[in-house]
Amino acid sequence: VPDPWQRDTFALSLTAAADATVAAYRRDLDQFVEWVERASVTEPCAVDRKILRRYIAHLTTRRFARRYIARKASSLRRYSDGFIDGDCSPSARRLRSTRAPLTVASL
């Protein structure tokens, strides 16, 4: 079954990144896909800023470190740069500009 999220292709596209970074970004994407599919989102074009902000809020409520959450947001922005294309909605393409909030209050 083809992966609509193209996770392997994403990991292979990170040619300038260190092996540890590639592994972390792939793991971040896998965890995001697992989380978002529980909400019946099954393809990248269905992800918008609202969903991403909910994910960041979810991570925040689990008391993960700010740097950890920021890295996950960075992973998803990097993913959206190459794998959320012009056929997606403008809202999905705007993921590139989403930044991780540093505190719960900024949500």
Give an overview of the whole structure.
- By secondary structure, the chain is an all-alpha fold.
- The protein is 57% helix and 0% strand.
- The chain is built from five helices and no strands.
- It has helices at residues 7-13, 19-37, 49-61, 66-83, 90-93.
- Helix 1 (7-13) packs antiparallel against helix 2 and helix 3 (49-61) runs antiparallel to helix 4.
- It is globular and about 35 Å long.
- The N and C termini lie far apart (37 Å).
- Mean pLDDT is 84; it is low at 102-107.
Short recap of the structure:
The chain has helices spanning 7-13, 19-37, 49-61, 66-83, 90-93.
Rg over CA atoms, rounded to whole Å, is 13 Å
What is the general shape? globular
Count of DSSP-assigned helices: 5
CA(first)-CA(last) distance: 37 Å
**pLDDT average, as an integer?**
84
Q: What does the main sheet amount to?
A: none
Q: Proportion of β residues?
A: under 5%
Computed structural class: mainly alpha
Beta strand count: 0
- Along the chain, the helix and strand elements come as HHHHH
Could you name the key traits of this structure?
107 residues, mainly alpha, globular, disordered C terminus
What's the topology here?
Elements: H1 7-13, H2 19-37, H3 49-61, H4 66-83, H5 90-93
Helix pairs in contact: 1-2, 2-4, 3-4
